[in-house]
Design a protein that fits this description.
Protein name: Sigma-70 family RNA polymerase sigma factor
Strand content: under 5%
Radius of gyration: 18 Å
InterPro entries: RNA_pol_sigma-70_dom, RNA_pol_sigma70, RNA_pol_sigma70_r2, RNA_pol_sigma70_r4, RNA_pol_sigma_r2, RNA_pol_sigma_r3/r4-like
CATH class of the largest domain: Mainly Alpha
Pfam families: Sigma70_r2 (PF04542), Sigma70_r4 (PF04545)
Number of helices: 10
Order of helices and strands: HHHHHHHHHH
Keywords: DNA-binding, Sigma factor, Transcription, Transcription regulation
Domain RNA polymerase sigma-70 region: 39-107, 150-198
Largest sheet: none
Number of domains: 2
């Protein structure tokens, strides 16, 4: 299932700020369901990044992806685009909150850490509390441990695009402007980077297997 999800991520066309604004306008002012769907799809990489923080404590990271997607949908439905706040900053808290709620609920049900030497150690006890420390936990526990290692092995321009989009949370348009090139060229580098990462992670991490 995870490989299929990654294949879908690879197909996502990242939006320019103007395109995203037009979608918000269509969804909020015209109740355009296709615009709502496009926004949810556009921000799936954010869900993936947050879910990856907990691959080390769950048998199937796709459970976290599914919960995170519920949080993303809630964020899309409640977000007020007219206030000038970046949606990613608003959505990340709902996505992360849904994942943490799910993990705590499942953990309190008695799921033990996979591979733990201590039979009394439950993985919900290792989850970070709500607060400023969650962000650093996300970065250090998974995304930096797994994906960044693979990012370093990408060709230079692909690596730069992936780092800017996923780590620096920049838009395709801003990266294109920095490199003085077209949006379509950056989209192509992004797709190539996703494809290479799938291959590298699939060979080196067991949990990437279906």
């Amino acid at each position: 299932m995870l490989n299929s999800y990654l294949a879908e991520l690879e197909k996502i066309k990242l939006l320019t700020p103007e395109e995203e604004h037009a979608l918000w306008q269509a969804y909020r002012e015209q109740d355009d369901e296709s615009a709502r769907t496009a926004l949810i799809e556009h921000y799936q990489p954010l869900v993936f990044r947050e879910a990856m923080a907990y691959y080390w404590v769950v048998p199937d990271v796709m459970d976290c992806v599914q919960e995170g997607t519920v949080g993303l949908i809630e964020a899309v439905e409640r977000f007020d685009y007219t206030k000038g706040v970046a949606f990613s900053l608003y959505a990340v808290h709902r996505v992360r909150g849904r994942i943490l709620d799910y993990l705590r609920k499942e953990g309190k049900g008695g799921t033990v850490l996979s591979g733990s030497a201590d039979d009394d150690e439950y993985w919900w006890e290792q989850l970070p509390d709500e607060g400023p420390s969650i962000e650093s936990a996300v970065e250090t526990k998974a995304f930096q441990q797994v994906v960044v290692e693979a990012l370093e092995r990408l060709p230079g321009k692909e690596r730069h695009v992936m780092e800017q989009v996923y780590l620096a949370d920049r838009s395709i348009a801003s990266v294109a402007g920095e490199l003085d090139t077209s949006n379509s060229y950056i989209h192509r580098l992004h797709r190539q980077g996703i494809k290479r990462l799938r291959g590298m992670l699939g060979r080196t991490r067991k949990f990437w297997n279906e």
